[in-house]
Write the structure tokens for this entry.
Amino acid sequence: MHSTSLNKSILHQKRQELDFLHHFYGLGYDLIDLSAIEQFDWTKLSEDDLGLMNERHKWQHEGSLFALRSDWTNAIVRYRQKYQLDSEKIAYSGPVYTLTNEKHQYGLETFTNDISKQTAVMKQMVDYIKNKLNISLSVAVISHNTLLKNLLSKEELADELTRKFIKERNRDALKVQLGSEHPILELMSHPAAEQASYVKEHMPHLKRHIEEMNLWESVLIEANVSYVYGDMLALPSQTYYKGISIQLYSEDKVEPIASGGQYSSPTNAFGIGLNI
């Protein structure tokens, strides 16, 4: 009985993976499949590569650095640049390995400056989650990488304790860490629903970024995500996100079922990954 159940579970997983790839191939995406083992040259590691290294299983052999793939976007960007691929839209599926677990991901990447094309990719992923996987999306959180960069120095933003206290919204700890007059404390003193208005009024140079968040928020509302809100203090899930960052949650879950954002490759791009 257990063997039958396990067999059915494996077949279901494989069919679901093929269904995802067939679905997005039919929507004009090119498919990509990469080795789970990546090879690096120590002298040519990018800032994003270095930022991900602490999360990788890695080893050295004959002067080269090898690591298990811990992130699909980073791997695809490196592959695209190495082989000069010109695909505008890419779909992928496969495992990623962090130091503590293995995840199976489905994902989409688009390499374009056109925001309407980027939001179209996000809508297609939302539609797939809701209509093909029959998973309702109850919450979407939108943030912008530039906001915290304007509130914190580079050293403050890189500090693990500061990031931890921001994630926890721990004002008392941040007051000790950054000083009572730090601008992030004033922003945190306002309710989350009022923070965007505060930024627009007191930080006019960030108005454009708030408007970008509003645009993506409206797209998700149109896609019938139950509750969508902007978070001025959200830390992006990946260090390489340079603009809009999005997390999608299914009902009663504390971890996002899907997350994504804008990054440079070397120009603007957008990707979103679904954890299965």
